[in-house]
Design goal:
The chain is mainly alpha-helical and 238 residues long. The protein has two domains: 147 residues, no CATH class; 69 residues, no CATH class. It is 75% helix and 0% strand. It starts with a helix and ends with a helix.
Length: 238
């Protein structure tokens, strides 16, 4: 099984990793709400929010440069709207759109990189998130590994049959055929997984091996995180 980088990050053991998923979800939601309501010209407050996120990344012992680079993957989606705002003359709104989008991506990536997905799903479930949506997310997460595994097997098989020529030759037709085969093999593999789960009595909810415990330190972490974010918003007014 070829685990993604974020999943490997979430298996570490630091102060943030040990906190209850519900505490981190609440802190992240408050941060996103406060960030969304921050005025576009409050650039000092946005800079302080960036510093707070960087400190949290350091506490979690995550590779800061790598996380910041991965968070920039969301920027192409907001650059179009930022460019429109810039053209019509609203430059502050354009800059704020880019900054808020980037900070939101860092916050969500921090949550995912410090909380294994099963624990995060349990936390969202106990907070009242729609169970159907959580089930879909769990299946998507698990089947991404199925597709990744099949892709690795196909790459190794193709390289073994074609040798160096496989790395030097590329065509869109061959790539399209490879993608079709990949999804066909992944579909058949997922059918086998589904039958195995149904045979074991799966009832639209994954079993919980360990219950969550919201301790005093988790409550303190939530209060401090929320207080810092709100105080930053109230202190740095335009």
């Amino acid at each position: 099984m070829h685990h993604v980088v974020v999943d490997r990050w979430s298996r570490a053991d630091t102060f943030l990793h040990r906190r209850d998923p519900r505490a981190k979800v609440i802190a992240t939601l408050v941060f996103l709400v406060v960030l969304a309501t921050t005025p576009g010209n409050a650039f000092v407050a946005l800079a302080v929010d960036f510093v707070l996120l960087t400190i949290a990344l350091a506490i979690a012992r995550l590779p800061i440069a790598n996380v910041l680079l991965r968070a920039s993957a969301v920027l192409p989606f907001c650059l179009t709207f930022a460019l429109i705002s810039w053209i019509v003359g609203d430059r502050e709104r354009a800059l704020a759109l880019i900054e808020k989008t980037y900070l939101s991506a860092i916050a969500v990536l921090l949550l995912a990189a410090t909380t294994p997905l099963p624990a995060l799903i349990r936390g969202l479930d106990t907070l009242g998130a729609p169970r159907f949506l959580l089930t879909v997310v769990q299946f998507m997460y698990r089947y991404l590994f199925v597709i990744s595994e099949q892709a690795q097997h196909m790459r190794i098989a193709a390289a073994s049959r074609a040798g160096i020529a496989f790395k030097q030759r590329f065509s869109f037709g061959a790539a399209a055929g490879a993608v079709a085969v990949l999804f066909a093999r992944s579909y058949h593999r997922s059918e086998g997984i589904h039958r195995a789960m149904a045979a074991r009595g799966f009832k639209e909810r994954f079993p919980v091996a360990q219950s969550l415990k919201f301790q005093t330190i988790d409550a303190a972490f939530t209060l401090v995180s929320v207080a810092l974010v709100i105080l930053t918003r109230l202190e740095w007014r335009p």
